[in-house]
From TrEMBL:
Entries under Gene3D superfamilies matching the protein: Cysteine protease Prp
Protein name: Ribosomal processing cysteine protease Prp
Domain of life: Bacteria
One Pfam family linked to the record: Peptidase_Prp
Claim: Protease is one of the keywords in the record: yes
Organism of derivation: Capillibacterium thermochitinicola
Length: 116
């Protein structure tokens, strides 16, 4: 199962932690994994290339770990843009989780700014 935990500080998403492999099908044939991976990678690209954010990324392919957090102090406009991108990722993953409950789980964790 893949578990994605979104990190929210106040009213805004500020990152996420994804771990595990969906196990829906063998590697290379797993459409659920492909959908989750596409949303994760697209969100990261949007945060970096469109919003211009520096991100703290931790990745381990074998364990299916991908953590992403907004790094450092960020201006308000960029936080708004990042929240929009992360909300879109959240909605997409919720949709996948609805259809494939045994393979994908999505949750939200409230964090303090000093935890970032």
């Amino acid at each position: 199962m893949t578990s994605v935990q979104f990190l929210r500080a106040g009213t805004r998403f500020v990152g996420f932690k994804a771990k595990g492999h969906t196990g829906y099908a063998p590697a290379g044939q797993d459409i659920v994994c492909a959908g989750v991976s596409t949303l994760v990678q697209t969100a990261v690209l949007g945060l970096q290339k469109l919003v211009g954010l520096e991100l703290q990324i931790e990745q381990e392919q074998k364990g299916g770990l991908f953590n992403c957090r907004i790094a450092g102090a960020v201006e308000e406009k960029k936080l708004e843009q990042a929240d929009l991108i992360l909300n879109l990722m959240y909605l997409g993953l919720q949709q996948i989780a609805q259809e494939y409950r045994k393979y994908v789980q999505v949750s939200v964790k409230e964090v303090q700014n000093d935890e970032l």
